[in-house]
Give the backbone structure.
Amino acid sequence: MVEKDHTVAGHEANWLQQLYDPLRQAGRRVAEYFAPQSEAAATGESYEIMVELPGVEADDIDVSVHEQTLSLRGEKRFETEQSGRSYFFSERAYGSFQRSFRLPPDADADKVSASFRNGVLTITVPKLGEPPSGARRIAVRQE
C-alpha cells in the first residue's frame, strides 16, 4: 500500500479553504434574515417599544400600523470593502428584518410616533385613556 504525501502546497491551501467554508456558508444563511432585539414598556400615558438597530440607517426603516398591529421592517446593508480581504467568519447580522407587535385595546393607533437615536428605534404609542372593558353587564328585567 502506498501512502500519499498530504503536505503538497496546493493541498494545504485547499485544506484551509475546506476548513472555513462551513463557517462562510453559515454566515451567509444568517445574513439573509435577522430579528433585532426589542423591549416594551408602559407608562401612565403611553406604550414604548425600543428596538436595537445598530448600523441601520433611518431611511431603511419602515414603521406602520394596520388593524391594531404595529409592523417594523427594514434592512441592514453590508457595506464593507472586501478588496484583498478573505473573511473566515462574521458574527455581525445583515439583511432584511421584520417584527410585528399586537397593540393593546387602549392604544391610540392614529398617534403612533417613532424616533431613532444612537442605533435605537423608539416607538411611542399613546393610550386612549380608560381601556375599553371586555364585557358589559346587561340588566335582566322581570316581566
User: Anything to note?
Assistant: Residues 34-79+91-126 form a domain with the Immunoglobulin-like fold (CATH 2.60.40.790).
